Amino acid sequence: MNMTTNMRPVSSAALKQAVEQHLTYTLGKDAGHASVYDWRMALSFAIRDCIVEPWFRATRSTYEGQRKRVYYLSMEFLIGRTLEDAMINLGLLEAARDVANEVGFDLREIIEDEPDAALGNGGLGRLAACFLESMSTIGCPAFGYGIRYEHGLFRQRFEGGQQVETPEDWLTLPHPWEFARPESAYEIGFKGEAVDGGWRPAESVVASAYDMPVIGWQGRWANTLRLWGAKPTTLFDLERFNSGDYAAAAEPEALARTLSRVLYPDDTTYQGKELRLKQEFFLTSAALQDILRRFRTEYDDLAKLPTKVAIQMNDTHPAIAGPELIRLLTDVHGMEWSQAQEIARATLGYTNHTLLPEALERWSTWLMGNVLPRHMQIIERIDDDHRRATKRPAHVGIVRNNEVQMGELAFIMSHKVNGVSALHSDLVKKTVFHDLNEIHPGRIINQTNGVTPRRWLKLANPPLATLISDKIGEGWIGDLEQIKTLEPFAKDADFRRDFRAAKRTNKVALSNWVGETMGVKIDPDAMFDVQIKRIHEYKRQHLNIFETIALWHNMRENPNAGWAPRVKIFGGKSAPGYAVAKEIIHLINDVASVINSDPVTKDLLKVVYPPNYNVSMAERVIPATDLSEQISTAGKEASGTGNMKFTMNGALTIGTLDGANVEIREQVGPENFFLFGLTADEVVKHRRNVRHARDAIEASQNMQSVLQMIVEGRFSPSDPDRYHGLVDRAWNHDHYLVAADFDSYYDAQRKVDALYLDPDAWEEQAVLNTARSGFFSSDRTIRGYMADIWETESALVGEESLT
Ligand code: OX2
Any coiled-coil ranges, and where (predicted)? Predict the structure, then answer.
C-alpha cells in the first residue's frame, strides 16, 4: 500500500469550499457574521478532514501488516498549537492563506486564535510532543497515551514583578482536534483490599478516551494521541441523595472530576501527593487495559506481547506500569507469575530524565498500600524475586526506608533504561543506578534527545526555512542531516547577508511584539541574548541576572568601552510552591525596571521578561535569538532541548559542559560555541570545599559589586531588605556554584561582545551552527529508540519508490 499517494493536492478553491461548508453546517454561522474564532474552527475542521484519510490508512496498514506498535506513556504532552503544524505537514499552508485572505482575514490572526495545549511543564512534555510528530513522520506505528487535563499549566502574570498564577482553560471553548471515544472506556479502581490473588477496589472511576490524530511530514502517516478523561462510574448515589446527604451523594462524581482536572505544575520536583499517585495509576491502567484489549483482538497468545507491543515509560511517572501489567496478566488473564514478570519486562522500557534527588519519585509504602493494595503486594514480590535472583547489596532495592522507590521499580521492570544525552547516560550509570548497572550491565543505554525540525525550524522560522530551501532544496525538512550541505555557504558573503537579513526580520517582529505587549522599546540591531526555560536554581537564571547587573554597572562606569548593545530576554515559569525560584523572578523584574529607565545605558542594555512563556512564545523568540543561554551547573541538566532549537535557528550558544550542550559543541565545533564554567567532575570536587562560594566571591571584584548593589536595595529601593535572603544564600548556600562560575561566565560574555561587533565573523559561526544541527532532529532520536529499545521498523520503508 502506498501512503504517499494520499497527498492529493488540495486547491485553494477546494479548501475554501470545505471551510465554508464547516462554517455553515458544523458551526451554523453565516459568513457575514463569522468571527476569527468561527473561521479558525471551520478551517481546523477542514484541515482535520484531510488528516482522517491517512490516519485510517495508517491504522489499517498496521493491522494488515500485523506490525509491532509503540505505546508512549507520558503524564505530559506539551503540544502548543495544532492548526499551523497540521497545515504545514499537509502542505496546505499556502492554500489556507489564500482562503483567509479571500474571506477577509489574516491567516496569522486565525492561527494565533488557537489556545496552546499546555498539558506539560517543560522539556519532558515537549519532548513527548516532538516524539509523536517524529513517529508519524517516520511511519513508526504508535500511540501516545496521556491525561486530558481540563486545566493545563497555569497562566503566569507579574504583579509588582512577582509571579501570580491563574488557571488555564484551554478546554472552555470546543477543541476541534479531538474525537471523543465514549466506547473506549475502562474502569480504574482505587483502595479497597487485596484478596487472594486479586483486588476488590473500594472506589472506581471510568477512563474515557479522546483521540487526537498526529500527522507526520507530508501527510504520509498519522498516529494517535489518546488522552483519558475521568468520568464517574455512577452519576450519583441516589440512595444517599434521597436521604438528604447531598455532598456524599456527589462523591463519585467529585473523585472523577478531580482526577483529570489539573496538571501538577512541578518540573523536576516530586511532591508525594495522593491525587498525583491516583493520576499516574489512572493513566497507566487505562493505557494498559486498552493495549491488552487491542492485542487480544489480533492475537490469542499473551506470551507474544513483547513481539507486537513496546511500551515506553516517560520518566517514572507511569512506573506503576510494571506491577499493573503483571496484575492484568496474572489476576485477570490467568498467566503464571514468573512468565508474567518476564513478559512485562520484555515489553517495557524506561527513560530517565533527571538525576536531581528532589525529582526522584518515591511513595510511602503506607500510601501505596492504601491507594493500590494489590500493587503493593506485587511490588514486594518483584523486589523479593530480584533480591533472590541477583544477590544484590543490602542498600539496593525497590522498597527501602518504608518507601517505594519508583526509579528502582522502573529499572527492574524494564529491559532497557535510557538517559537523554551522552553525559547524562554516563552519569546515570555512575550515580543513581550505579549498583543496578553492575547487576544488569548493558541495560542502560543512551538516546540523545532531539526536536522536530518541522515545528522548530519550518513553522517557527519561515524566513530562514525559505532561505535554506532556496539554497539546498526541501529535503532537510524530512531528513535534517541534509542541512549539512549548507556548510560551504558559511564562506559565501551573499549567503551570510541573506542569513542575517532573515534573522533581522525575526528580530524586528519580536521587537514590535515586545513594544506592543510590554511597552518596552528594544533595538533589533542589538544582540538578543535569551534564556527561556523553567525557572530553577540549577538552570541558574540568577547567574544570568548577576552578570547583567555587573555588565550594567561596568557600562555606566565606562560607557565608551566598546560594549555590544544587548537585550537580555528572559522567559519562564516557576513552580507555584518554589519560593527561591519566585524570588529570582522578582529580582529579574526589579533589575529590568531599573536598567530600562537608566538614560546612561539606554542604547546599550535592556532587560525584558514577557510573562507566560509557553510553546507559542518559544516559536516567536527562538528564531529572533542571537545568543542562547545554556548555563546550568554541569551535571544537572539531563539534556536540554531548547539548546537544540536555538542551534538549528542559527543562534550561538554560551554554555557549560552539561547535558546535550556537550554534543552540540562537538557537532558545531568548539570554535563556534562559547564555553565556560566547571565540568561535572570539577563541580563535585569543588563542593567539598565548604568555602567555595566565599572564596570565589572574595576573589571577584565584579561579583562583590553585584551582591553589594543587591543588598543595598539598588533594585528594590522601596524595600531595601527584599533580597537579603538571596544574597545570604549566594555567600553561604550556593549549591549550584554560581560564584565559582561567575568570572568565567563574565569573561565568556565579553568574548561574545567582541564577536558580535564583527558581524561577518558572527554570521559565519551562526551559519555553521544551523548547518551542523542535523544530529538534533527527533527523527534521529526516534530511529535510535526503534532500533535499540523497541525493535520496530518503519511502515514506510520502500514507500518512496511507489510515488
Ligand atoms: C527534563 C530535563 O530537566 C531536561 O534536561 C530534559 O531535556 C527534558 O526533561 C527532556 O528529556 N522533568 N523534566 C525533565 O526531567 C524531568 C523529571
Answer: none
643 and 741 within one domain: yes
User: Are 186 and 294 spatial neighbours (Cβ–Cβ below 8 Å)?
Assistant: no
pLDDT at 255: 87
Please give the Cα distance from 158 to 662 (Å, whole number): 35
First to last CA, the chain: 11
The answer to whether position 77 is within a domain reads: yes
- Is the separation of the CB atoms in 654 and 629 below 8 Å? yes
β-bridge mates for residue 71, sequence order? 143, 311
Active site residues: 353, 533-534, 539, 641, 645
Atom of ligand 1 nearest to the CA of 659: 5
Q: Are residues 249 and 162 in the same domain?
A: yes
What per-residue confidence (pLDDT) applies to 244? 85
331 part of a folded domain = no
In a shared domain, residues 118 and 198: yes
Q: Which one, of 82, 108, 103, lies nearest residue 17 by Cα?
A: 103
Angle between helices 251-259 and 274-298 (to 10 degrees): 80
Q: How far is the CA of 428 from the centre of ligand 1 (A)?
A: 14
Q: Whose CA is nearest to atom 14 of ligand 1?
A: 124
Query: What's the pLDDT at 6?
Result: 43
> What is the position in ligand 1's atom list of the atom closest to the CA of 640?
7
Q: Are residues 235 and 171 in the same domain?
A: yes
Number of domains the chain contains:
3
Half-sphere exposure of 43 (CA within 13 A, CB side): 34
Q: How far is the CA of 281 from the centre of ligand 1 (A)?
A: 21
Q: pLDDT digits over 422-472, tens only?
A: 999 999 999 999 999 999 999 999 999 999 999 999 999 999 999 999 999
Packing angle between helix 701-711 and helix 541-557, nearest 10 degrees?
A: 100
ipTM of the complex: 0.99
Tell me what the pLDDT averaged over the chain comes to: 96
| Eight-state DSSP code of residue 451 | B
- Of 453, 416, 419, 422, nearest to 778 (Cα)? 453
417 and 484 fall within a common domain: no
Residue whose entry in the numeric block shows the C-alpha cell 552539561: 658
**Cα–Cα distance, 116 to 439 (Å, whole number):** 44
Q: Has residue 775 been placed in a domain?
A: no
97-134 pLDDT per residue, tens: 999 999 999 999 999 999 999 999 999 999 999 999 99
Rounded Cα distance between 634 and 424, Å, is 10
In this structure, are 654 and 587 located in the same domain? yes
Q: How many angstroms separate the Cα of 210 from the Cα of each of 146, 226, 800?
A: 10, 6, 32
Q: How far is the CA of 273 from the centre of ligand 1 (A)?
A: 21
* Adjacent-strand bridge partners of 118: 78
Co-location of 420 and 458 in the same domain: no
Question: Phi, psi at residue 54, to the nearest 5°?
Answer: -60, -30
Residues with CB under 6 A from ligand 1: 122-124, 127, 267-268, 315, 353-354, 359, 420, 449, 637-641, 659
Digit-coded pLDDT (tens) for 259-296 = 999 999 999 999 999 999 999 999 999 999 999 999 99
b (16+ CB within 10 A) / e for 177-187? bbeeeeebbbe
Burial group, residue 307, by CB count within 10 angstroms (0-12, 13-18, 19+)? middle
**CATH code (residue 458):** 3.40.50.2000
Q: With respect to residue 794, please indicate whether it lies within any of the assigned structural domains.
A: no
DSSP 640: -
739 CA → ligand 1 middle, Å: 25
Q: Are residues 475 and 594 in the same domain?
A: yes
Q: Which of 447, 481, 508 is a domain's end point?
A: 447
Q: How far apart are CA 663 and CA 668, in angstroms?
A: 9
